[in-house]
C-alpha cells in the first residue's frame, strides 16, 4: 500500500540535493556560487535514493538497530586497552616509511594526491611490488580504474615490479573492487584512483562529490572491518587542492602530497595529515625512466658541485620537516636599458626579492635598484623561507661587486626592514648539517649564551646583528653612497644618443 507519505516496506524514495564539487557543501537549493567555499559554477544537482517507510516501522527498526549495536559494542576502561603499536607494513622505501611514521598501519586508509604525471601511479606500483616481494605468502591487490591490465603490466616490467603474488584488476565498479578484497584478502590494496571508481547505489557522475564520498566511505569501512590497509590515489584541482569533497581528507587516516617540478626529476612527499605519525616529515625521490628511486641523503641535490668560489653564489640551509637541506642561491646583476629594470626569480619569492633589494640599498649602501637582477636556486630548490634572506643578500652583493663568497662559507638569517639580522628557528640543527657537509664558516644572527657554548665540529660562527656587519663579514666592500639618479645602469652609446634626441 502506498500513500502520500511514500510506499511501505522499504521502497526507495528519490530525494534531490545540490552538492558543491569543491568543498562538499550540500543543500536543497541551487546556487550559482557555493555559499561555503565561494567558488562559482561548482554546485551540481544529484539524486540520492533513501529507504523510507511508515513512522511505526521506521522507529521500530531504528530502536532495534540501536539496541543490537549497544549489545554488540563493548566499552573498556582506557587503562585496560592494550598500548601495543599497530602492526606496520614496510613500503620498501625508507623515505616513504618515514613520512608515514614507520610504515603502513594495518586497517588504515592513505590518500596520495598529486598533479597529473608527477609519478603517483609509478611510486605506488613500485610500492606494491616491494610489499609483494617482502610478503611472498600473501597477495597485493592493485585496482586500476584508469589503465588496462596490459598497460599496468608494461609499467611494472619497466620499473621491475613483476611479482607472482601482485594481482592486477582493471575495473571502475566499486562492488567488484570490494568483492575482490573480500575474496583475495590481500595484505595491501591500492586503488588508482578514487575519482574513477563509481558506485551503482548512488547517482552522480564519476569523480563527482557524491560518488567520491560513497567510494571513499565504502573502502574505509572495508579497511576498518577487515584490517587490510588501502592506499587511494587522489587527483588535484587547478589550484593544487585535492579534488572532490573536503570531507574526503577528514575521512582518511593519512593524506600525502606528492610534489615536484615537471622540469626536474626531484620529487618530494609530504604528509599533510597523519594520525599515526608526524606531519612535518618529507621524503625525497628521484624520478627516472626506470621508476622512482629514493634519495636518502639529498644534501648534494641543491648544490652545484663546484670546488672553487664563484661570484654571485652563497649557500644557506633550509628546514623541510625534521630535515635540513642546503640550498645554493645564485644571483646575476647586469646593467639595464629598460625603463623598468627586470626582476626574474626561480625558487625565490619575487616580493621578498624586491624587499631585500630595498633593504640592501638603504642599509647596506649597495644600489641595485636600476639593474636587472636574476636570482635562482639549483635543481628546483626552494629558498622562500625567511632564513634564506642573508644568503640572497650575500649573493646579490657578491654579484654586484664581483667579490665571490668563499665556497666553505654559508649564511643563515632573516633580514628585517630596519636592516637587522634576526634569529631563525632550529639554528643548531642547520649548523649541524653544515658542519657535516664540510663548511668551515657560518654567518649567523647573534645567538644566545647557551647556544653559543655548543660545538659544531670545527664550524666557525660569525655572529652579526645588522646587515652592514654581515656584508663586512663576507668581505664585500661598501659601494658608493646612493644618489637620487639612476647611475648604476650604463646604457649603450646609441641608446643614450637616441634619448637625447
Question: Can I get a quick summary?
Answer:
With 501 residues, the protein is of the alpha/beta class. It contains 13 helices and 25 strands. The protein has helices at 55-72, 94-100, 120-134, 149-158, 174-184, 209-226, 247-251, 350-363, 389-401, 427-436, 449-452, 467-473, 493-500; strands at residues 2-3, 6-7, 12-20, 26-27, 43-51, 88-89, 104-105, 109-114, 140-144, 166-170, 188-192, 230-234, 254-260, 266-274, 282-288, 291-294, 313-320, 323-335, 343-346, 371-377, 409-411, 414-415, 421-422, 441-445, 460-464.
Low-confidence stretches: 1-14, 49-72, 477-501
The CATH class assignment of the largest domain is Alpha Beta
The dominant shape is elongated
Biggest sheet character? 9 strands, mixed
Main-sheet strand order equals 10-9-11-12-8-13-14-15-16
CATH architecture assignment of the largest domain: 3-Layer(aba) Sandwich
Which class best fits the helix and strand makeup? alpha/beta
Secondary structure tally, helices = 13
> How many domains comprise the coordinates?
3
Helix content: 25-40%
For the record, give the distance between the C-alpha atoms at the N and C termini, rounded to a whole number.
Answer: 97 Å
DSSP, total strands = 25
